[in-house]
Write a structure and sequence with these properties.
The chain has strands at residues 7-13, 26-32, 41-45, 54-60, 67-74, 80-82, 90-93, 98-108, 117-123, 133-139, 142-147, 157-159. By secondary structure, the chain is mostly beta strands. The protein has one domain (41-159): Immunoglobulins (Immunoglobulin-like, Sandwich). A hairpin with an 8-residue loop joins strand 8 (98-108) and strand 9.
Length: 165
């Protein structure tokens, strides 16, 4: 069965066995969707008062009425899924002392994936020695520390093209 365009369709089919016996015709209303969602726009926000072991990324501006989920990864790693809604925050653990390239893509109900949006996040937590640590928390499997001294250097967020935001 071939359809020339996306959208709602009615499909009818019958099965014929080797002896030539035909089943009753069955009818189903289906929707054909082969168009990928638009790539998300990424807004990074560092977690306030912590060293740079994690980043919060908020995907937005996806024009897809049937948005299912987002997938994300650090460049070169396997995709992970996030069943967040548009505008929700995805928290991603970062590799220490490294320019982490974060990719996020949208997936619609039909399984079509957008191209990946990218943002680079410089993680530089060992370039200073934090003092007066209050508590430790867990972020995506890694440790990060809340600092009393808020004058420490913050990470730099920039698009993957390299210009600071």
């Amino acid at each position: 069965m071939t359809f020339n365009s996306d959208g709602p369709k009615t499909a009818c089919a019958a099965i014929i066995d080797d002896a030539g016996n035909a089943s009753l015709v069955q009818k189903a209303n289906i929707t054909i969707d082969t168009i990928e969602p638009t790539p998300p726009t990424l807004s990074p926000n560092n977690l306030s008062g912590v060293n740079a072991s994690c980043v919060n990324v908020t995907p937005s501006n996806v024009t897809e009425p049937n948005l299912w989920k987002f997938e994300y990864r650090k460049l070169g790693e396997d995709w992970k899924e996030s069943l967040t809604s548009l505008g929700d925050v995805i928290t991603i653990g970062l590799i220490q002392d490294f320019d982490n390239v974060i990719e996020v893509r949208a997936v619609d109900d039909a399984g079509n994936r957008s191209s990946a949006a990218q943002i680079a996040v410089e993680e530089n937590s060992s370039l200073f020695l934090p003092t007066n640590l209050k508590i430790k928390q867990i972020c995506d499997g890694g440790n990060y520390a809340i600092l009393k001294d808020m004058s420490v250097k913050r990470p730099v967020y920039r698009p993957a093209s390299g210009n600071p935001i």
